[in-house]
Amino acid sequence: MAPSTFFHIIFSVFVFCLCSSFSDAAYPSNRVSISSPSHLPKLQAEKLIRELNLFPKSSINTAAGNASVSAAPKNIVEKQFSLNPLGDPGLSVQEFGHHAGYYRLPHTQAARMFYLFFESRKSKSEPVVIWLTGGPGCGSEVALFYENGPFHIADNMSLIWNDYGWDKVSNLLFVDQPTGTGFSYTTNEDDVRHDEKGVSNDLYDFLQAFFTEHPQYAKNDFYITGESYAGHYIPAFAARVDQGNKAKEGIRINLKGFAIGNGLTNPEIQYKAYTEYALNMRLIQQSDYDKINNLIPTCEQTIRTCESDGGDACLSSYATCNDIFNSIMQIAGDINYYDIRKKCEGNLCYDFSNMERFLNQKSVKDALGVGNIEFVSCSSTVYEAMLMDWMRNLEVGIPALLEDGIRVLIYAGEYDLICNWLGNSRWVHAMEWSGKKEFGAARTIPFTVDGAEAGQMKSHGPLTFLKVHDAGHMVPMDQPKASLQMLESWMQGKLPLTRTEGSTYPN
């Protein structure tokens, strides 16, 4: 492979969907070697991870020396914990149920999935919401501490309550997945996932075990949420839950809906939207737009070949299509592609380093029950393994879920370039389902918070699209109050529905 192609893949590894980046360029087979030597592309990828001020010591979590968890006889090993956050959340820490645990994934050789569960601050009868962080390969703790979890990390390494944590309106689950990210680990390279089938089966197995362990939550409404590369994870996971319910596999999961924030879901449509978004936001000029658009037909063709042939065709498509994004960035310069209102200062675009410092403290590890595992904030090996999944279209499974009455919320911060609102809006409008015409004809109306417009939205039946004002890629971080109201209103069926004249449909 030519050096320029290597560069394009490695650069794009960082600059698309979620807070990290890493990859060994093209990965030639369906196997990854946990012990493989570092090559030049991986060294470049590690440099890109450092742009977030993250320094994972390993490319994947193998949990060397953590025999105590590995030898545990139960499928789930869980403990209640307290990290003594500062401030007054309205109740004492002792009244909250905060749990951390490991689940032994049954269809693997040695994989253990780590999760954190926070009971609702309001009522245990609130919905159960699971959050999936993207990457692919970043631990869920990125969202927990910087977006919608119960706590934020102060500079002195203490925790402070998040006034807009999603546990205020739900029982909230964070999962480190796919295997090898965060505190999740394996000692067998065959357990590393390469596609959505493996990812969604693992998550479904985990849910079955979780609700067996916590039967009091099994009948609660259940929602799947996440952002970025979770635009791939979420539709596949939702379809797997729906399939399991219909086949009466194990415990019935009361799936009511799923929400994707600034996601990568339909690459063919979303990559085509890059140039128009960049032109509209004055990142490029008309002459740049015309020139870069010449790359789009080849990108479209390689995506179709990826869908039909898979394998190396998907790697080729990944490299080809990311030329579009790279060309825009060469012109735009040092903008933060997660939030184009901001610039990256030197090599630093965001600073999430406190997360690594906090989670690698012995006292925190002891509280969470993870033994002596090193926290792997973002796994380059996991990212690398999922590269052939990247250009797949995960929108194709959503129409069937809509027809089953499962609510779908697609939301996007307006200043994100990487998974921009325009591309997301276009695939939502292009999706073929029974309500397509009515959704397209629906009026766009304000989404208001405290009487002020916080976004623009449109709905028909179970489908809602929401563009969030004054937010980039990570909406719960940039607009915490609006994101909490969005979640609560959506789960309650109270996000205003826009109706076309004469149409009728249920909430």
From TrEMBL:
- This chain belongs to which protein, by name? Carboxypeptidase
Name the UniProt key words of this record, in alphabetical order.
Carboxypeptidase, Hydrolase, Protease
Give the organism, scientific name. Answer: Melia azedarach
